[in-house]
Amino acid sequence: MRASRMMSLLLHLQVRGEVQGSELARLLEVSERTVQRDARALADAGIPVRATRGPAGGYRLGGGYRTRLTGIGLDEAGALAFLGLGAPAEQLGLGDLVDGLQTKIWAALTTEARESAQRSTERFHLDPVRWFGRAEPVPCLGPLAVAVWGDHRVRLEYVKNGRPSRRTVDPLGLVLASGEWYLVALRQGQRRTYRVSRVRSVTTLEEPSRRPADFDLAEVWRASRRELEEEDTAVEVTVRVHASHLPGLRRVLPAAGQERVPEVISGQEVELTVPFEGESWAAFALLGLCGGVEVLAPDWMRRRIGEQVLTAAANYGSGPVDG
How far apart are CA 311 and CA 305, in angstroms? Predict the structure, then answer.
């Protein structure tokens, strides 16, 4: 334990230059007195750890010393995919591993390479969470990640359309897309995708999961996404749209329909026929666009929208509410 902590102290000094004792204590989760003892032990072992006194004092490595003892363990190697993705790593319980791994990688870089990497982190940031929303809670993500990593079959309690059911599946991988986690699995030999937020419980079974030898998670996810996006839509609606509402209309359409909405138009309004994934969603989305969109066809959709507009107007037609 102490050897690992001293190694971490050395790597922090190599990456950060001079570091205050209080900061090292925070990073290593020990007392400043322990930092002093570890620094003295490193110096006694011949490593040029230098201490500077005073309010701004701290520790640094002298004489351009660099260590190459930055070996990455098996557990840290498993966390490599999450470098730069702090929030997903925390959700999977890999936060501390990723922090330690990043320190080791930075310590292994030359000064010039480290400066280049620092420039990148100052100019590029990855944020996989969707705008203006919070991801649904995923209390079962941890057990699923363990099952995926260990290749164990699991029994899920899964809720779909408000109804719970039990399913035994072979978990193949976890995917984070637009802030939501999905489980890719085999059920009775058929590929299935499950939204992790709908999993209510996970029971890990004794038997191993059946994982195809040529399975490629990234390619399977791309195929699943294409299949979903290319599915036949339930309804097509012809609308008259004001130019200012074109971006809003594009956002509520499935991928297959977004290309039908022009970026700009020559006049104030344009007529378009666009697809929706279902009748209820079409009505909800079009009502949300308010007066910027008028439904022209089919007639039943125009009537449905009109009835809902009248109902909404009646709710506000009795004057201000006393308060």
Answer: 10
